Amino acid sequence: MNRQQIPVVVLAGFLGSGKTTLLNHLLHHSGGSRIGAIVNDFGSIEIDAMSVAGQLGDSTVSLGNGCLCCAVDASELDEYLERLARPSAGIDVIVIEASGLAEPQELVKMLLASENPHIVYGGLVEVVDAAEFDATRERHPEVDRHLGIADLVVVNKADRVPADERERVLEIVRGLAGRAAVVSASYGRVDVELFFDRAPVGERVGQLSFDDLREDDHDKPGEHGGHGGHGEHDGHLHSAYESLAFTSDVPMGPRPLMALLDSRPEGLYRIKGYVDFGTADPRNRYEVHAVGRFLRFYPQPWGPGEPRLTQLVLIGSGVDVPALEKELEACREYAPQAADERSMWGVLRYVQEPEEEQEAAEDPAAF
Predict the structure, then answer these.
(1) Rounded distance, CA 130 to CA 171, Å?
(2) At 329, which helix (H) or strand (E)?
(3) Non-local CB neighbours of 195 within 8 Å, separated by 6+ positions
(4) Coil, strand, or helix at residue 141?
(5) How much is the pTM?
(6) Quick check: helix, strand or coil at residue 265?
(7) What Cα–Cα distance (Å) separates residue 154 from each residue in 195, 197, 272, 318, 366?
(8) What is the arithmetic mean of pLDDT over 172-182?
């Protein structure tokens, strides 16, 4: 990539839902990805278990794997986003753990309107407590609204309720969450691929590694040992979501692809990779970044002799992968027409050039 933007994920949920437990899980299992964590305080973060390397500032510590953790209040958020997003920090993803009583919509609006050229919205993740779901809705009816704007919902503490009760809660959450992906978890253990891309081991598409998505070698016994003894990688994590790696050496038609993306199926949480639009724009490939309802394209000149391929990775929950693959295949242009710049208008709605960062507030229809 000639321009690196760091995804910023908002991690929200009411007190006791398990946000900090989930964040600890991400920090422990970053797989070599460097996380910048912004939290309200260090009280519940397992600092000792993550090999603190030393203080970097008044409220910043360096954690294992190069991760950084900042304790901030709301007035300091922009300052620490700027600090963590600097290229010199080497951070791959930033996770903001919102206060248990925070209004996540305000954080999302701030990120969507940010003029910081180094960050991009990485999604709103709402954590709910399966065992206390009904009581939480009674005390905090705004949880329904929070679920309605989430990109990913983690129904945590699923082990604490009977199977029929768990399914009842999941059904209610899916109804409230609309198009969002919904997964259940115990002890905050979700696969990190839902949040960010692990360190690559093979063929790459941007930050994504197709090998990482295809292989389950991180579930091998003993690889992660010593972090709790509750069967953290018992093979069930991957059953919570589906992934599709799509490659085409035939250019994609802008109109059919945008029709697919604009009506993408419920539960399709992340899309990342590169698109070749052929004669519609022969000079550029288009990097695509989508999370939940958010979508953005970045045109980049083709390199000399670079293979002209479309390479995409799609991740979601409850997605019909074979049907999605057929829809993508139907977007291929086997007999492209003469160049028609109007065919790219749907794509260009989601292009943000570097010099236009001051106009960063998104079209509400894109969120």
Answers:
(1) 12
(2) helix 321-329
(3) 9, 26, 93, 95, 122, 125
(4) coil
(5) 0.76
(6) coil
(7) 12, 18, 21, 14, 23
(8) 93
Residues 46 and 43: their CA atoms lie apart, in Å, by: 8
Residue pair 224/29 in contact by the 8 Å Cβ criterion: yes
- CA dist 36 and 335 (Å) reads 46
How far is it, in rounded angstroms, from Cα 110 to Cα 114?
6
- Tokens encoding 56: 């970097």
Q: What is the pLDDT of residue 339?
A: 61
Tokens matching residue 16: 């006791």
Task: Using alpha carbons, list the distances in angstroms from residue 35 to 29, 198, 297.
Answer: 10, 11, 24
- Other residues' Cβ atoms within 10 Å of the Cβ of residue 167: 12
SS3 116: coil
Residue with tokens 């259940």: 184
DSSP state of 332: B
The pair of structure tokens assigned to 160 is 């604490």
Residue given tokens 């360096």 in the structure block = 62
What integer pLDDT is reported at residue 2 of this predicted model? 37
CA-nearest of 12, 20, 265 to 124 is 12
What band does 77 get if pLDDT is binned at 50, 70 and 90?
confident
What are 311's strand-pairing partners?
247, 274
Task: Sort 17 into a burial class: Cβ within 10 Å, 0-12 / 13-18 / 19+.
Answer: buried
User: How far apart are the C-alpha atoms of 26 and 196, rounded to whole Å?
Assistant: 9
The structure tokens 């203080």 sit at 55
Question: Computed over its alpha carbons, how large is the radius of gyration of the chain?
Answer: 20
Largest Cα separation within the chain, whole Å, is 62
Strand 93-97 with 68-71, pairing: unpaired
Residue 74: count of CB within 10 angstroms of its CB: 13
Q: Give the whole-angstrom CA distance, residue 244 versus residue 322.
A: 9
